[in-house]
Amino acid sequence: MVKHKVYIVLSIKTLTPFYVKSAFFLSKAGKRHLRMDRIIKEKISADHLLYVSLKYTKTSEVIVNLILRWTTMMDYSFERMLQHAKKKKMIKLIPNSPKPKIDLLKEIFKNKKEVMDTIELYDMFRRIDELKKESEGEFRKNVALKVYYRGDIIKVNLDKLKEYSIILEKFINYLKQFLSS
Predict the structure, then answer these.
(1) Contact between 42 and 76 (Cβ < 8 Å)
(2) Nearest to 73 by CA among 22, 109, 37
(3) In the chain, fewer beta carbons within 10 Å around the N or the C end?
(4) Rounded Cα gap, residues 158 and 117, in angstroms
């Protein structure tokens, strides 16, 4: 019995690096590029948090985790968009820091509403851990998270999360279209 437990632990350790590496592919030049399937996996996880976990737990912690999951998905998406833009010779260089990456995306996609709306959301989402937050209606149907952002109070409830989900769904559809061009 003990041998099987050791075997399982060893197999998980050997599979984990493979899973992380499989999120990238190598280009002809030998550089690592992010795959679209990693973005889709993050979206599926976020959808599960929105439509299943939040439905049953009704806590503000699930809302924060959902926003963090969306932030990770957007990070991967923005990185992939910049890689594709560089491949298409729309840009020469991909910045290393997050702020210049976002500024570059704003410049490239200033006429694309889907991208601009997502970047606006991303600005709040990536700071969610640092922002002052208050829980409201925990364990009840009307659970909400009050977020103090740029001098305003944003009440993130289920309806607001669904609005965000629609914005991100449009963004993912645009992303697929952009990456296939």
Answers:
(1) yes
(2) 37
(3) N
(4) 19
In Å, how far are 2, 22, 117, 140, 178 from 37, measured between CA atoms? 36, 9, 22, 35, 15
* Token pair for 89: 């010779």
Model-wide pTM > 0.90: no
Instruction: Let me know how long the chain is.
Output: 181
Distance of CA 127 to the CA centre of its chain: 13
Under 8 Å between Cβ of 156 and 63: yes
Quote the CA–CA distance of 4 and 34 in Å, as a whole number. 35
Q: What is the mean pLDDT of the chain?
A: 85
Strands 144-149 and 132-136, by their bridges, are: antiparallel
High-pLDDT (> 90) share of the chain, %: 76
- What tens digit of pLDDT does each residue of 120-152 get? 999 999 999 999 999 999 988 899 999 999 999
- Contact yes or no for 126/45 (Cβ under 8 A): no
Residue 132: CB atoms within 10 Å: 9
Amino acid at 135: S
Q: Do 47 and 65 touch, CB atoms closer than 8 A?
A: no
